């Protein structure tokens, strides 16, 4: 049988079938994407870690609860930091007789105003974690606690290195 002359429509249809005959879903690429996504979610949803600082040696403690993610005040031997931002100098704070640290009040109020859930928790107090070196003076710690209480950060936690419980 001789080759019949194909019409324009049938040529287009046969060309379309030829191009799309081997189409389908490439599962290897899709599996790669989902594997990367799973690893990303596992890493990013891990337990909360406090920011590490070489300037701070945390005291040791035995704790049963995992800390919640809160605002962090870090106290090094030279600086007081809120979320890594320097707020005050330790040497200056130790020389003044004022109980309330004005720069810390300003920063804590700013942070409280910018929190989405702060308005719902205003009546019950906000949570904060103090991450201070184990050798900081009590006088400095007392000033920071008084400042936190004045700015409605009343749920105060202290960061510590967790040690294993002794079974005896």
Automatic annotation (TrEMBL):
Main location: membrane
Keyword annotations of the record: Cell membrane, Membrane, Protein transport, Transmembrane, Transmembrane helix, Transport
Parts of the chain that traverse the membrane: 21-43
Bilayer topology: Single-pass membrane protein; Single-pass type II membrane protein
Single GO biological process annotation from the record: protein transport
Compartmental location: Cell membrane
Pfam families in the cross-refs: ExbD
GO terms assigned for molecular function: transmembrane transporter activity
GO cellular component, one term: plasma membrane
Family: Belongs to the ExbD/TolR family.
Xref: PANTHER family: EXBD MEMBRANE COMPONENT OF PMF-DRIVEN MACROMOLECULE IMPORT SYSTEM
Protein name: Biopolymer transport protein ExbD/TolR
């Amino acid at each position: 049988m001789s080759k019949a002359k194909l019409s324009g429509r049938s040529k287009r249809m046969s060309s379309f079938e030829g191009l799309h005959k081997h189409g389908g879903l490439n599962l290897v690429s899709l599996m790669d994407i989902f594997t990367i996504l799973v690893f990303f979610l596992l890493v990013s949803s891990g337990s909360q870690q406090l920011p590490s600082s070489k300037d701070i040696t945390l005291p040791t403690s035995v704790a049963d609860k995992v800390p919640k993610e809160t605002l962090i005040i870090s106290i090094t031997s030279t600086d007081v930091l809120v979320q890594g931002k320097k707020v005050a100098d330790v040497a200056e704070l130790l020389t003044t007789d004022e109980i309330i640290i004005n720069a810390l009040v300003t920063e804590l109020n700013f942070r409280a105003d910018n929190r989405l859930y702060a308005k719902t928790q205003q009546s019950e107090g906000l949570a904060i974690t103090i991450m201070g070196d184990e050798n900081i003076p009590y006088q400095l710690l007392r000033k920071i606690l008084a400042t936190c209480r004045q700015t409605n950060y009343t749920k105060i936690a202290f960061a510590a290195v967790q040690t294993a419980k002794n079974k005896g």
